[in-house]
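2024-03-11 09:14:02 INFO receiving multi-entity request
2024-03-11 09:14:02 INFO entity count = two
2024-03-11 09:14:03 INFO echoing inputs for audit
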Amino acid sequence: MTREIVLERMTQIFRDIFDDESINVVDATHADDIEDWDSLEHINLVLAVEEEFDIKFTLPEVTDAKNVGDIVDIIVQRGTL
Amino acid sequence: MVNEIISYPFDSIEIIKKKKAIKRQLRRQDALLEVRIAIMSGSTVGVVSDVLELFLLYFGIKPIFFIGNYNRYYEELLFENRELFAFSPDIIYIHTSIRNVTDTFEIEKFKVMWDKIREVYACTIIQNNFELPGYYEAALCKKINEYNVFIADYALKNNNFYVNDIQFLSAWYGLGAWLDAQDYMLYKYALSIKAIPHLSYQIAKIIKSMYGKNQKCLVLDLDDTLWGGIVGEIGTEKIEIGSDTALGEGYKAFQKYVKTLHEQGIILAVCSKNEEKITRDAFNNPNMVLSLEDITVFCANWDNKADNIKYIAAQLNILPESIVFIDDNPAERELIRQAIPQVKVPEVNNVVDFIRHIEEAGYFYTTRVTEEDKKRNQYYANEVKRANEEELFADYSAYLRSLCMTSEIEAFSWASIERIVQLINKTNQFNFTTRRYSIHEINDVMINSQYITLYGTLDDKFGSNGIVSAIIGKAQADVLHITLWVMSCRVFKRDMECAMLDRLVKMARDAGISKIVGCYYPSAKNGVVRELYKDMGFNKTSEDESGNTVWALHTSSYVNKNKVISVTRGRTV
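2024-03-11 09:21:47 INFO inference complete, emitting structure
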């Protein structure tokens, strides 16, 4: 799966969770860029991404990810589509 | 669209993902009942309260939350807590789980905590019991079972204490999937985040049932719904019902279940495309569990089912949202969904799934069956008899006189308070202000001499209706402001409102009040009383652009209006 496709699907998840159709996520997007992105929504994001790509992040993956790009890396590496 | 995501069987991930948009849309409804809920934490509660809010909104309840600090439930409930006291909760929900069962845990401390809540906050308690551990440990499993018996015993002995049974729910969901070690280590959620919507839904079911937001009537198709086969083709002897065949066993089990609902006060109606005579005859089949007497409105004809359901609602004088419709035919279900979207239409095809679906959706979820619930079917059956009798009279007032109605109209009393609160919070149609009151607020009103309160019962030759109307008025100088006036839709057009007003005016005069003022605030459902103050002799004094109107009545020139109900002094209580 290409990074573009992953980012496109991630964008839709972000739009749903933050109820904001204007969001476009890129590799560098992180919690400070979106006002409502707090710890609660972070958990919901992780859950929604796991469902969307049918993967389960490991504990270190969740704690180490610094931005959207890190999550995209994991999804692309796992090669699921 | 929102209904599809949130109505049972819901999609947990969709709900969590789209909760902001769902909340935005559900909050647009009017006449939401505000309930103040304190959520006390034994583990993280964020998603629990977020999703609980959505389900409550879907049930017509707008929660105001107080969220306790992480894992401080015990200290926050046991010791003085000014914030919580100031919040004045209607409900305290204690979100504990097996994660709180540490080596030093003692269940007896919970009783101290519950007793304290009852003493300080005098509100309803919803307490989780405990789920079993994630891997087998005989001693711990035994302890958990003992704890759960302890909690259940307390619930049996104390009113306004409800168990949120997560031992059941986690088993139903799958204990292995329920206890997600990673979600606990990372975020301190006691259960898997994916399972949380099911937890929240179960809490919402308890709360909506407490506030009278359940459905009231089950409308049933007949062929392949209550029995197997088409009775019009195979005859009343050949339909499948009873223990002779596997399928017959299924229909028998469903009828038994429906009969139990009926005994708990759920009204039953039939809506079937059939010849009426043969379907009535089918109930003589000796294997049938339900009898014709159990069914309050019977529609077996060739008319459109949407028209029949509207007829059933009109006969019973209930709103379409109070109806659950069960039909094995997907085309009929779709027709009803399109024509009357408020009716609950579970997507079930096969009799083996009916019971589980109705129970899981919780349309008729009961925490406790009240005396009122048990009598409800008799009321509605009497109502249909009355309607039949009405047709015999050319003159409506002659008909009303023939009912030999009697009423007891008195100030609120402790004995009647439970029913009054239920009536106030579930009445949508005859309700001028859609103001809701908690049991606390009613207590306050009763002990405050500024207020005049009245409840009214109505009996007639067909039976008793119990308490059907309530008024709260607040006196300021020589003016009485009616802040609440509700009446059950069961007794519309019986001149009960006249009897209530007569008594109110008398009490106002006795208290030296010269003017009574009432307001009408329009909601989606209370159009029936828009002009009622006018019809009762009030003058309109103002109206704003949203249609809110204010009405006034001078007590000196008032002439009693009730001529058909004999009003007696109340029982001494």
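2024-03-11 09:21:48 INFO post-check: Chain B has a mean pLDDT of 92.
2024-03-11 09:21:48 INFO post-check: The longest strand of chain B covers residues 463-476.
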